[in-house]
Write a structure and sequence with these properties.
This protein has about 375 residues and is mainly α. It has helices at about 1-35, 40-50, 55-65, 70-95, 100-120, 130-150, 170-210, 215-225, 230-240, 245-270, 280-295, 295-300, 305-330, 335-360, and strands at about 95, 125, 275, 305. The chain has a single domain, classed as NCX, central ion-binding region (A middle domain of Talin 1, Up-down Bundle), CATH 1.20.1420.30. Helix 3 packs parallel to helix 10 (about 245-270), helix 5 (about 100-120) runs antiparallel to helix 6 and helix 6 (about 130-150) packs antiparallel against helix 10 (about 245-270).
């Protein structure tokens, strides 16, 4: 009976994710068109913040309950999952184009916020003041993002009432009705994504317990990935519908939101801040910062995330997950595997990225690029 129930939750969750991702992308695309905002900005804001709602709920609730280390682990794990798994899987299916502004502004801000985490946590705790600083930096970025979108040529239609006298009767009202409908579709899509992610986590945890997996291993793998399932659904659906800016913007925007708002809020609501355990310095925070830095060469080379680069990102996540599982089960070869990854995998990845960058630099460029 437990197996049947667990499978039922998994099926219901997958169906909800499928429809929720479709509705979210449809609503966001129409809203971008109506508001005169680019799909990238919508992906960086509406879609990214909406799909990061599970991380915000889990981390803030954990901090309020005194489980502050869970908040940090959730942010680090979710960002690694977003960058390595989601971006890698999406690019493996459909190569992703990258807008120039993403390379010039959004990714550098993501790198800055990622580096800020070990800096503010250097004393062993991300304090309330540190959390407030992360929130302020995020709000400054968001304000700049929205101001930039209003100055763009496409955003002339953001205030259609200003040109109402030149438009047919009822045109402005029609635009706002469509905007409200688009927002309703976005909210419905987000609701389905949240339900779907929770349903899949519930079903998967039940099956994992039946298989004899430990609670630590379940939390390390299933629950951590479960809060990122909305991002998976939104990015894959967006890419399949040709909305590749939304797919890329969702990943970058979600990572920004996780650090600035999720981790910042978690530290701000906790009386003791968010402690940074010693174990996090050994592997997790290093990989966390590297995952942000590696975006710059991947995004900048031809402004495309190719299939082989997607495969490289997936391989990187596989290595990270393997080290986590070996450490969780206290495997005797855990330390040796970590050392092998640092000595072999990291140099190989750096060499491959350098070769990709060099090939792009030497390739002939079309005029005007």
């Amino acid at each position: 009976m437990v197996i049947v129930t667990a499978i039922g939750w998994l099926v219901a969750g997958l169906v909800a994710l499928l429809f929720g991702g479709d509705w979210l992308v449809r609503g966001a695309s129409r809203l971008a068109l109506l508001a005169g905002m680019s799909p990238l900005v919508i992906g960086l804001t509406v879609v990214a913040f909406g799909t990061s709602a599970p991380e915000l709920a889990v981390s803030v609730a954990a901090s309020l309950q005194g489980k502050t280390e869970l908040a940090l682990g959730n942010v680090v794990g979710s960002n690694l999952f977003n960058m390595f798994f989601i971006l890698g899987l999406t690019a493996l299916i459909v190569p992703l184009s990258v807008e120039r502004r993403l390379i010039r502004l959004d990714v550098p801000v993501m790198v800055l916020l990622s580096i800020m985490v070990p800096i503010v946590g250097w004393d062993g705790t991300i304090s309330r003041a540190d959390g407030g600083l992360l929130i302020v930096l995020m709000l400054l970025y968001l304000g700049s993002l929205l101001r930039g979108s209003k100055r763009s040529p496409e955003s002339v239609a953001v205030h259609p009432e200003e040109i109402a006298p030149m438009l047919p009767t009822g045109f402005v009202a029609g635009r706002w009705r469509k905007g409200i409908v688009s927002l309703a579709v976005i909210v419905a899509g987000l609701a389905l994504l949240l339900f779907g992610s929770q349903a899949i986590v519930r079903g998967a945890v039940d099956l994992a317990r039946l298989a004899g997996m430990s609670e630590m291993l379940i939390g390390l793998t299933i629950v951590a990935a479960g809060t990122s399932l909305p991002e998976v659904a939104a990015s894959l659906v967006a890419a399949s519908k040709g909305e590749r800016d939304i797919a890329v913007g969702n990943v970058v925007g979600s990572n920004l939101f996780n650090v600035g708002m999720v981790l910042g809020s978690s530290a701000a609501v906790s009386s003791i801040g968010v402690p940074v355990p010693e174990a996090a310095w050994e592997r997790d925070l290093f990989t966390f910062v590297v995952s942000a830095l590696v975006c710059l060469p991947i995004f900048a080379t031809g402004r495309v995330v190719s299939r082989w680069e997607g495969a490289l990102l997936l391989a990187g996540y596989g290595l990270f997950l393997t080290t986590q599982i070996l450490a969780a089960v206290e495997h005797p070869q855990s330390d040796g595997f970590d050392g092998a990854v640092l000595r072999l995998a990291v140099p190989v990845i750096l060499i491959v990225l350098a070769a990709d960058w060099l090939r792009w630099l030497l390739a002939p460029k079309p005029l005007g690029s």
